[in-house]
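Format notes (please read before filing issues)

Several people have asked whether sequences and structure tokens are stored in separate files. They are not. Every record keeps both together, in the order shown below: the sequence lines, then the token lines. Line labels are part of the format and must not be stripped during preprocessing.
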Amino acid sequence: MTSPRPSIVVCEHYSDSALERLRAAGEVTRLEVPTEEELIEHLAEADALLVRTYTQVTGRVLEAAPRLKVVGRGGVGVENIDLSAAAGRGVTVVYTPAAATEAVAELTIGLMLALERKIIGGDQRIRAGEFFEARRQALGRELGLCTLGVVGMGRIGRVVGRIAATGLGMRVLFNDIVDVGPLGFSAEAVSKPTLFADADVVSLHVTLTESTRGLIDRAALLGFQPTTTLINTARGAALDSAAVAAALGEGRLAGAAVDVYDQEPPPPAHPLRNAPNVILSPHAAARSPRGQARMNDVANDLIAVLEGRPPQYPVKQ
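Then the structure lines:
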């Protein structure tokens, strides 16, 4: 007797190609961004769960899924999945750590250039009929004369550092909690206080953990130069948004460019929406065609686990 096909629950958006692969492997149920109760309701008989950014896979959710073998997350961050609870229940977690490395790094460099060379403000002033005023205020730093501080020298941080060092001629400092090994470009490992004090541009490339939540808070910002700019294409909760907004308003931070937020979308009262000299990007760093295609390939690892094969990108639990 043939065993029933696996039940696969897919939350949020995945490509038609990914869904076709999943439907060939099992019975697919599609959800948008379910609440915890809605997710629990659909997981009673599920063998696999696929999520993106906003679906929360809590311990309670996992307890309600006795047949669950694998959880997949298209993206590099897995903080919306309770990894300890998954490990305790023998559930494999797979993700796409290298999917959008280049896309995120390129947007980081673009935000850096836009911020330092005042590109967004210049565009807005010209549209307001203030060409000469915009030209007078367009004086910006050449990045080749600046020091970049990379916090988190993982896949994305390395590409940002390489572009900055070899493409723009920047001096690069970095801080990481592990030995990152040879980089292939000139960069100096330093403490966080040294990085914050010496960098003209600080760029965050950390995953979200208890140690990185609120990493850039008032205390950290007091160690910045008032001429420093800050880039965050990592995780919104790595910033204390109110502290960053206060530093901008008080002239203790020269500018910020942010692609991720502690609340998405950021509400009207979000501190960064009303802070001066901030570029806001809609969590779009990974949204290139190649990056999105690679994220959708998490479906392959999900299917591999269901079929008893080793996945390419399991999360260490």
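For reference, the curators noted about this record: The first strand starts at residue 7 and ends at 11. Residues 101-280 form a domain with the Rossmann fold fold (CATH 3.40.50.720).
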